TrEMBL record:
It comes from the Eukaryota. Interacts (via the SH2 and SH3 domains) with DOK1. Interacts with KHDRBS1/SAM68 and VIM. The lineage of its organism: Eukaryota, Metazoa, Chordata, Craniata, Vertebrata. SMART domains: SH2, SH3, TyrKc. The gene is SRMS. ATP binds at K259. GO terms for molecular function: ATP binding; non-membrane spanning protein tyrosine kinase activity. This is Tyrosine-protein kinase. Residues 53-114 form the SH3 domain. It comes from Suricata suricatta. Belongs to the protein kinase superfamily. Tyr protein kinase family. It is found in: Cytoplasm. The keyword Kinase applies. It holds the Pfam family SH2. Non-receptor tyrosine-protein kinase which phosphorylates DOK1 on tyrosine residues. Also phosphorylates KHDRBS1/SAM68 and VIM on tyrosine residues. Phosphorylation of KHDRBS1 is EGF-dependent. Phosphorylates OTUB1, promoting deubiquitination of RPTOR.
Length: 493
């Protein structure tokens, strides 16, 4: 066969020299490369004709039966190196057993990648030695679990990592032009063939290959959790006990409000639980949560944007100052609706005030920051830290003994009513926190604002009863305020 091919295809003499070296027997089977030879193939000898293109890997699309000695029989799925294109044929060397070379019609072949690895359960791309070790030692894997990964230290090579009884063993799989090997002298056309061999002959590497590594399941993706990169902060809206509030854009188009949490002041261990509570709350009078960014710092809490800002600032603005008692009473009713919903779900706000109620373009009011106060560190949210605790909005039992309840929220709601009907005026103006707490404990109560109806002021006084159990529930306050609105302003109902 060798003389026939050398005579008919003289321009491939350099390939014949590699396949049939001088003195090699003419048995029609290419010899394996010297196991001690370099992994890089030697360049072809210079010839008067143009150099051939680099070898291309092909896959047989159809069965083909050789019709003469120059042709090569192939089966569908065979992998071949195409050495030279000759008209409608490709002179190729088959990689699978038995290895041989010859002409194959080009219509029967398709270009292939060196290895189709992505679908193999044992192949893990993009991981290193440490990650492979961590995965194999996880409870899901037992001794005999294995994986193949790209080598970290030798580009183009692979590593075989196997879990043994005492740990994880790693083996280098080297790549050569004609195949791959784990041990010199044992060359394989593909990783799959190499693994098949060592599964049957595992004693050669002292590590049984029993089953592919079971990947660690990633935690389920939280639909609320979004990458911080999706949000662009544009304009600072304010700053409070919990952090800064910014107007921003989500994915470049949706206006949102972003609360950037001050992690130094927060009990971050409880933040995830509190965020879960926020996700479960749905009411038209509560600010709507859009997303959270809780992986890393700072934590973002992303909500709908209320363009008129917080109720306290809005009431003090020229637009707010121009509003009459009917709209002020509407604000009170809306806040009572939102707090009644929280009351039904046994959620304690702890920081109810006009600054934590937001106003939209349509003068809709929504309660914000519900529950976040419980996350503040005790040394920040306490009477001993001066102005940090909102003493003027806090019920005496909460300010003195840290006893927070839905009834302490009712006290705060009474103060919020005072803010509403004084157009955002600070309660207990002129008194310090300490003086305020002293006066309230002695029985002092805020006076009736000039614009406040007498029956609404009566509800304020009910909210400020000394005994928490004597204060009304938010459900009752909602009904009383709605009834007062219907009586005082029937045209608006």
């Amino acid at each position: 066969m060798e003389p026939f091919l050398r005579k008919r295809l003289t321009f491939l003499s350099f390939f014949w020299d590699k396949i049939w070296p001088v003195g090699a027997p003419d048995d029609g089977i290419p010899g394996l490369p010297d196991p001690e030879a370099s992994a890089e193939p030697e360049p072809p000898a210079a010839e008067p004709r143009s150099s051939p293109e680099p070898a291309q890997l092909f896959r047989a699309l159809y069965d083909f039966t050789a019709r003469c000695a120059e042709e090569l029989s192939v089966s569908r799925g065979d992998r071949l190196y195409g050495l030279k294109e000759e008209g409608d044929y490709i002179f190729a060397r088959r990689l699978s057993d038995p290895p041989s070379a010859g002409l194959v019609p080009i219509t029967h072949l398709a270009k292939a990648t060196p290895e189709t690895l992505s679908d193999q359960p044992w192949f893990f791309s993009g991981i290193g030695r440490a990650r492979a070790q961590q995965m194999l030692l996880s409870p899901a894997n037992a001794p005999g679990a294995f994986l193949v990964r790209p080598s970290e230290s030798s580009r183009g090579d692979y590593s075989l990592s196997v879990r043994a009884q005492a740990g994880v063993r790693h083996y280098r799989i080297s790549t050569e032009a004609d195949g791959l090997y784990l041990q010199k002298g044992r060359l394989f056309p593909s990783l799959e063939d190499l693994l098949t061999y060592y599964k049957a002959n595992w004693k050669l590497i002292h590590s049984p290959l029993l089953q592919p590594c079971v990947p660690q399941q990633p935690p389920p993706q939280d639909e609320w959790e979004r990458p911080r990169s999706e949000f662009a902060l544009q304009r600072k809206l304010g700053e409070g006990y919990f952090g800064e509030v910014w107007e921003g854009l989500w994915l470049g188009s949706t206006p949102v409000a972003v609360k950037v949490i001050k992690s130094a002041y927060m009990q971050l261990a409880d933040l995830a639980k509190e965020i879960q509570t926020l996700k479960s709350l749905r009411h038209e009078r509560l600010i709507r949560l859009h997303a959270v960014c809780s992986a890393g710092k700072p934590v973002y809490i992303v909500t709908e944007l209320m363009r008129k800002g917080n109720l306290q600032a809005f009431l003090g603005s020229p637009e707010g100052q121009a509003l009459g008692p009917p709209l002020l009473l509407s604000f009170a009713c809306q806040v009572a609706e939102g707090m009644s919903y929280l009351e039904e779900r046994r959620i304690v706000h702890r920081d109810l005030a006009a600054r934590n109620v937001l106003v939209g373009d349509d003068l809709a009011c929504k309660v914000a920051d519900f529950g976040l106060a419980r996350l503040l560190k005790e040394d920040v949210y306490s009477p001993s830290s001066g102005s940090k605790i909102p003493v003027k909005w806090t019920a005496p039992e909460a300010a003195n003994y840290r006893v927070y309840s839905q009834k302490s929220d009712v006290w705060s709601f009474g103060v919020l009513l005072y803010e509403v009907f004084t157009y955002g005026q600070c309660p207990y103006e002129g008194l310090s926190n300490h003086e305020t707490l002293q006066q309230v404990t002695r029985g002092y109560r805020l006076p009736r604002p000039a614009s406040c109806p007498a029956e609404v002021y009566g509800l304020m006084l009910e909210c400020w009863r000394s005994g928490p159990e004597e204060r009304p529930a938010f459900a009752a306050l909602r009904e009383e305020l709605s009834a007062a609105r219907r009586r005082l302003h029937p045209a608006l109902t």
